[in-house]
Each structure stands twice: as structure tokens, then as C-alpha cells.
């Protein structure tokens, strides 16, 4: 028996939570030195959503600061998540990896003409010094409508994977799938497709402490926000051409020291990001305060900008989207990023009057206003009250302490339950279970790559220029 060992490390769904990155850097550098001393093979992967425009480093440098951090640790391959794929414009994504010292693997992303982008490869083959050949495939979650609006074509991974696996099986000893698809998909692939030895996953933020074995495949995923580094140790028999053992674990960053060089690199990159965001967009003659518990001047500006940008008669948005108000004086891109950091886009949803009435009722509930959560693009603290433009109603407080709407008017006309209404709102509501009527709506129109802070910049400049 001729056994060889490969040590694989992986990160996923960092979402620009760079507070843990210096610890990750120290751990990876330490492990790399150790494996070099012991003449062992090591591979390092990121499974997407490393970038998140909530951080000024990412926002100001259009994600390229994140690539610099990946370069410093000598990543072998990365795949992209939805935060790289659909929160950047096509131009920004096309140039994001210009300085990358690793290959980006995205087997299911194409230009509209069917050609692959110059920076993306379907797979990579690592020919290791111990004689092993390791094939690595990358795929990302296909948000078809969003990629299409940005000028991309994204394909169904189920169509892309089988021929790639068949192709690689002839060339390599083991196959690794970097999957920014979510745990459910990874399990289904392991149950359905033969030939994949390891699936390193992301997107659903699962923490699989020892991995999950499904048929002959080991599935791993290391949580979110850089709180853990995934570690896999594979023992391979060169004579038998098969894996003997494969063990997975997730190492918490709390056990790690911090790398000072990386700390300084993050500080320098963030300073440059902030410098680039220090661009004036408007001057305010008076402050714009915000309240999370009702209508306020700044929230009114936001909902007006939604209605005007989307060219609808009515609009609604939750006040918690705005993390703070704005003082009078100069407003910069940095200010708007600080108060509205979410990677959230405007959209139009068509609802019946009865569905709109139901949503207004849900939004008035105390538990919805005070709801604290993270996800669906939301990077705030609490939902806050719903703010409307073109929708008016009386609020009546009932004995149970809850508020309810009565006499709902749409631009002065009484709401008709069977009438259809186009409503400008935010894409966050079209995902998940916050407002089922919106999530299940058949008619939705998204606007990309503009984010809410872009609408605010446009509206504030427009107000000033008036």
C-alpha cells in the first residue's frame, strides 16, 4: 500500500466579515509551513461570498481588496457566490479577478453569446508532487433573472456537471466540487451523481463539524462570517487509485492567533476604500432624521425615490433599511454606504388589492416592526415600520394591543380587492417568508445593478438641483 496524504483547507460565506480574517491568515500560514516541513500536499479553496458590499473595503474597491486578501494566503481556487455574481455590475465582475493569483472556477456562468468569461474556468487540475492528480469543479447558484438582467447567462448545474465529471474521471484520481449551491443541493448531487469524492459547500451557511457522508461522497461546509476554517485530510492509495480515509473538521477562529501583517493589510485596504467613497453626491440644507417606528423625513425620501425610479404610482419600504439619518451639509458616497449598506435592489411587484391589504396588516404587527434578523440582503438591525408613498389608511388600535388598517386608499381612491396594483419595493421581500404574497407573486420586475443607496444618491441630488 502506497499511501499519500492531502490536506485541504476551505472558507465560505465570509461576507466581508474581515474581523476574523487575521486569525484565519495566521492559521493558514502556520499550517502551510507545517505541511511544507513534513513534505505534505496542501490545497486551499474559497467557496464564494467572500465579498459583501456591506464593508467599505469591498464597496470602495469593487471587491478587489478581497482578492488581494485571497492572494496573500495563496488560495488555489475559488468559486463565486451570489454576492460576487449579482451584487456587482457585469463590468465590475469582469474585472474583479484581474489581479488574482488563483483560478476562478465557475462552470455554469457564460456571456449571453454562450462564451465563458475570460476569468472563469469550469475546472482545474492540480498535479501534485506526490503523483496525484486532483480535479476541482466550481459551480454557483443560478439566480436566472438577476444574471440575465446583468447581461450574463447562468446555466442549470444539473446540465453542466455530468459531462464535466465524465471528462475529469479520465484525467484525475479524485474529484472535488466547490459548490455555492446550498446543502440540500449538495446532498442531492451526492445521492444522484457518481464520481465526486468531496463536495465543499457554501450558500446555506451550514456548519458541518465532521462533514456529512452521503453514499461515497464527503460533504463539508464551514458556517459563515469566517468563524471557522474547514479542514479535510484525505489519505489516498496510489496503487489502488482510491481514497482510504477522508476526515473533515471545522476549526474555530477563537483558537487562533492574529497575523499582524494581514491586520495591517486590511487597515490599508479599508482606508483606500474609504478614500474612494469620499465623493460628494449632494448638499443638504437641513438634516434628514430617520425613525424605525414610523414615517420620518429620510424614510419618506427613500420610498419616494423607489416610486420615481421604478415609475409606479405606489411604493413601500421598511424603515429599518436606513441605519441612521443624515446631518445637513455635504453627503458623500461613504455617508450613503454607512446608512444604507445592504446589497438590495429595487423591484416592482404586481399584487391584488386583497394581497396588498394583507401585507399592510402584516407590516403593522408589533413583532414584524421589531423583527431582528440578518439575511436576504438585509444588513440592518431591525425591520422597522413600513413606509408608503401613494398608500394611505387610518390606523386603529385594538384591545389586543395590535394596530390594524382601515379605509385603505390608493392615491385617493379606495383600495379595490380584485384590482391589480404595481408596487415599487425591494427585492428582499420577494425572497423568503417575510411577506408570502410578495414572494409568491407571479409578476416581478427587478432593477440591477442599482442598489438602494444609488437611488438615494440620485434622489438627493435631484432634490438639491430642484
Describe this structure in words.
This protein has 15 helices and 25 strands. It is an alpha/beta fold. It folds into two domains: 3-273, Metallo-dependent phosphatases (Purple Acid Phosphatase, chain A, domain 2, 4-Layer Sandwich), CATH 3.60.21.10; 279-465, 5'-nucleotidase,  domain 2 (Alpha-Beta Complex). The N and C termini lie far apart (80 Å). The mean pLDDT is 95.
Report the major sheet.
7 strands, mixed
Within the CATH hierarchy, at the fold level, what is the topology of the largest domain? Purple Acid Phosphatase, chain A, domain 2
Q: What is the C-level CATH assignment of the largest domain?
A: Alpha Beta
Relevant CATH superfamily of the largest domain:
Metallo-dependent phosphatases
List segments where confidence is low: pLDDT < 50 over at least 5 consecutive residues: none
User: How many distinct domains?
Assistant: 2
What is the tally of beta strands?
A: 25
Descriptive tags:
single chain, 466 residues, alpha/beta, Purple Acid Phosphatase, chain A, domain 2, 5'-nucleotidase,  domain 2, 2 domains, six-stranded mixed β-sheet, 15 helices
Summarize this entry quickly.
This protein is an alpha/beta fold and 466 residues long. It has helices at 21-37, 56-60, 64-72, 82-86, 90-96, 144-149, 157-169, 183-192, 260-277, 297-310, 333-339, 353-364, 366-369, 436-439, 452-465, and strands at residues 3-11, 41-46, 77-78, 103-105, 109-111, 120-121, 123-127, 133-140, 152-154, 174-180, 198-201, 212-214, 217-220, 228-237, 242-252, 280-284, 314-318, 329-332, 346-352, 386-389, 391-397, 403-410, 413-414, 420-426, 444-446. It folds into two domains: 3-273, Metallo-dependent phosphatases (Purple Acid Phosphatase, chain A, domain 2); 279-465, Alpha-Beta Complex (5'-nucleotidase,  domain 2), CATH 3.90.780.10.
Amino acid at each position: 500500500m502506497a499511501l499519500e496524504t492531502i490536506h485541504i483547507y476551505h472558507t465560505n460565506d465570509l461576507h466581508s466579515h474581515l474581523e476574523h480574517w487575521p486569525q484565519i491568515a495566521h492559521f493558514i500560514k502556520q499550517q502551510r509551513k507545517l505541511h511544507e516541513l513534513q513534505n505534505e500536499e496542501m490545497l486551499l479553496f474559497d467557496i464564494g461570498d467572500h465579498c459583501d458590499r456591506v464593508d467599505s473595503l469591498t464597496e470602495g474597491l469593487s471587491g478587489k481588496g478581497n482578492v488581494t486578501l485571497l492572494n496573500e494566503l495563496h488560495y488555489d481556487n475559488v468559486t463565486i457566490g451570489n454576492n460576487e455574481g449579482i451584487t456587482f455590475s457585469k463590468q465590475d465582475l469582469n474585472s474583479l479577478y484581474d489581479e488574482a493569483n488563483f483560478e476562478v472556477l465557475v462552470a455554469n456562468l457564460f456571456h449571453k453569446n454562450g462564451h465563458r468569461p475570460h476569468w472563469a474556468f469550469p475546472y482545474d487540475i492540480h498535479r501534485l508532487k506526490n503523483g496525484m492528480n486532483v480535479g476541482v469543479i466550481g459551480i454557483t447558484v443560478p439566480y436566472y433573472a438577476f444574471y440575465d438582467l446583468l447581461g450574463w447567462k447562468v446555466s442549470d448545474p444539473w446540465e453542466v456537471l455530468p459531462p464535466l465529471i465524465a471528462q475529469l474521471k479520465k484525467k484525475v484520481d479524485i474529484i472535488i466540487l466547490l459548490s455555492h449551491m446550498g446543502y440540500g443541493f449538495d446532498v442531492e448531487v451526492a445521492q444522484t451523481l457518481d464520481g465526486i469524492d468531496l463536495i465543499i459547500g457554501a450558500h446555506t451557511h451550514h456548519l458541518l463539524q465532521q462533514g456529512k457522508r452521503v453514499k461515497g461522497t464527503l460533504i463539508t461546509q464551514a458556517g459563515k462570517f469566517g468563524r471557522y476554517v474547514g479542514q479535510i485530510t484525505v489519505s489516498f492509495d496510489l496503487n489502488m487509485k482510491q481514497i482510504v480515509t477522508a476526515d473533515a473538521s471545522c476549526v474555530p477562529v477563537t483558537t487562533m492567533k492574529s497575523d499582524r501583517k494581514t491586520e495591517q493589510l486590511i487597515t490599508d485596504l479599508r482606508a483606500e476604500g474609504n478614500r474612494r467613497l469620499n465623493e460628494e453626491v449632494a448638499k443638504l440644507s437641513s438634516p434628514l432624521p430617520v425613525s424605525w417606528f414610523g414615517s420620518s423625513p429620510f424614510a419618506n425620501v427613500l420610498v419616494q425615490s423607489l416610486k420615481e425610479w421604478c415609475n409606479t404610482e405606489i411604493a413601500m419600504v421598511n424603515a429599518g433599511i436606513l441605519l441612521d439619518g443624515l446631518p445637513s451639509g455635504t453627503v458623500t458616497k461613504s455617508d450613503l454606504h454607512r446608512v444604507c449598506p445592504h446589497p438590495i435592489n429595487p423591484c416592482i411587484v404586481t399584487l391584488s388589492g386583497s394581497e396588498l391589504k394583507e401585507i399592510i396588516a402584516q407590516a403593522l404587527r408589533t413583532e414584524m416592526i421589531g423583527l431582528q434578523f440578518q439575511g436576504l440582503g438585509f444588513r440592518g438591525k431591525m425591520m422597522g415600520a413600513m413606509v408608503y408613498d401613494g398608500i394611505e389608511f387610518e390606523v386603529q388600535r385594538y384591545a389586543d394591543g395590535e394596530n390594524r388598517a382601515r379605509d385603505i386608499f390608493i392615491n385617493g381612491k379606495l383600495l379595490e380587492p380584485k384590482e391589480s396594483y404595481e408596487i415599487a419595493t425591494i427585492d428582499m421581500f420577494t425572497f423568503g417568508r417575510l411577506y408570502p404574497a410578495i414572494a409568491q407573486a407571479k409578476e416581478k420586475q427587478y432593477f440591477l445593478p442599482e442598489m438602494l443607496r444609488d437611488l438615494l444618491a440620485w434622489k438627493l441630488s435631484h432634490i438639491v438641483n430642484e
